[in-house]
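quick one
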Amino acid sequence: MALNTCPDCGNQVSSEATNCPNCGKPLNKPFEAPEAKQESNNEPPPKTWLIESILTTIFCCLPFGIVGIIYAAKVESSWYAGRKEIALNASKSAKTWTLVALFSGITAVVLYIILVVIIGLGAASMNY
Ligand SMILES: [Zn+2]
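structure w/ zinc ion:
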């Protein structure tokens, strides 16, 4: 364990301590600060929902998914053009339309299964 010298009182302090035990001065950990600054400068765009909207379009074959893709494509282009508010709104719209497409697809599949079961039961009862 290394020892640092407190800049205020000259006390020998462990390099792992965040405060000087003698005078209470906060001791800087220089290797932590620059990393945190870089992250805030390079802010990532909001969620685009592009993959989700493409998948729902492929598997559900619904026009709602295409609307989701249009909004998803708008998210990143608006974000890097500096229009953060438009990008955030497009992200919300992409999410809404992707979920609408997804639930429409699920409803269609469930209705199809119910229909098949009803027809299947009808055909089975006709045999007896
Ligand atoms: Zn001190």
